[in-house]
Specification:
- GO terms for molecular function: translation elongation factor activity.
- Keywords: Cytoplasm, Elongation factor, Protein biosynthesis.
- The chain has two domains: 5-51, Ubiquitin-associated (UBA) domain (Helicase, Ruva Protein, domain 3); 58-172, Elongation factor Ts, dimerisation domain (Tetrahydropterin Synthase, Chain A), CATH 3.30.479.
- 50% of the residues lie in helices and 19% in strands.
- It is built from eight helices and five strands, in the order αααββααααββαβ.
- It has helices spanning 5-15, 19-28, 33-51, 82-85, 88-104, 116-122, 126-133, 148-159, and strands at 58-65, 71-79, 139-140, 143-147, 164-172.
- A three-stranded antiparallel beta sheet has the order 1-2-5.
- A hairpin with a 2-residue loop joins strand 3 (139-140) and strand 4.
- The chain is globular.
């Protein structure tokens, strides 16, 4: 099936994948954008898993100050090279994460940091606690159909490097 260039452009805009890859996948799925997005998402997860062992020592500090300057967030986002750290996509990801931190106020980066004692003190079941308090498990504030971990995996697939949230802080006046 010959795929219209408009579909290729739309898939590229929505996923950031290469033109040839978009065209090839759309041909495989007979022009279904949703199926193509799902395939690209799965490939991104596989690519992220392969890169997870690489050391990420470069990066930047993302920041967001909410309207009225009463709450702000900072996040240290690391990658493998300063080249990727200087890209607009990486900077936008860092800003999105800082904004998410301001909005949802997570306490932990990953579930590995959460002990059974912490969950017991909260009075919640572990799954609920993790979804509310762990950054990587939270639904992304700008698109609740994906978690922060999903968003990171997409960025890893797009930018071609391991990306790690090293630490974050949220400041609020009077808190």
């Amino acid at each position: 099936m010959a795929v219209p260039i408009e579909l290729v452009k739309e898939l590229r805009e929505r996923t950031g994948a290469g033109i040839k890859e978009c065209r090839d996948i759309l041909e495989q799925v007979d022009g279904s954008i949703n199926k193509a997005i799902e395939i690209l998402r799965e490939r991104g997860i596989e690519a992220a898993a392969k890169k997870a062992s690489r050391e990420a020592k470069e990066g930047l500090i993302g920041s967001y100050v909410h309207h009225g300057a009463r709450v702000a967030g900072l996040v240290e986002l690391n990658c493998e090279t300063d080249f990727v750290a200087r890209t607009e996509d990486f900077a936008a990801l860092a800003k999105d994460l800082a904004q998410h931190i301001v909005a949802l106020n997570p306490r932990f980066i990953s579930e590995a940091e959460v002990t059974d004692e912490i969950v017991a003190e909260s009075g919640q079941i572990r799954e609920t606690f993790v979804k509310e308090q762990v950054l990587l498990a939270q639904p992304f504030v700008k698109d609740s159909s994906q978690t922060i971990e999903d968003k990171l995996k997409q960025a890893i697939a797009k930018l071609g490097e391991n990306i790690v949230v090293r630490r974050f802080v949220r400041y609020e006046i009077g808190a």
